Please model this.
Amino acid sequence: MGEVERPAAGRRTVALVGLRCTGKTSVGRSLAVRLGRPFVDLDERTAARGRAAGWTAPAAGDLLAAAGLAEFRRLEADALDEVLDAALAAGEPIVLATGGGVVETPRCRGRLARDAVVAWLTAGVEELGRRLRSDPTARPSLTGADPVAELAVLLKRRAPLFREVATWTIDCGDRGIDEVAAELHTRLRAAGAA
Model:
């Protein structure tokens, strides 16, 4: 993948994007500890917005299944705006783990590219399939296919969108959570964004 370096200095929020099971939440939590910043999981915020709107879904996957993709993406975009606006207004940098499909919404891509240092976490489809099969989290299908089988389809569709917003691309396929977080921390310090 041809990585396009985007300026990171002066941008305080760090957002992690990538397909399901790339480790966005786990790496984000580890990175937040290293940076001494609050960690925010966008899926949790989206589910909370769904509950506030009357959906009884306890988690993002349940909300997606209950509300449908269009409503889920609307709630997700609103949650992203809320999180980024709050961080900017408070002047408090955060580490944000996004949902895998956040980049499918143009409004979200614009916010991420403008207001965050974005790390695209990648891994091979076979590795992601292995992780997905062992993950107890409910992951509804987005294409009508088996969630493991649809990974290649989602990667093909989303790769250009991830690339569009990414400051850095980091392969995390055969690496541990702390190793990936340490690399991100090093990159952020070198860019003056830690």
User: Anything to note?
Assistant: The CA atoms of residues 109 and 164 lie 8 Å apart. The radius of gyration is 16 Å. The beta strands are 14-17, 39-41, 95-97, 117-122, 168-171. Helices lie at 24-35, 42-52, 60-67, 69-90, 106-115, 125-134, 151-165, 177-190.
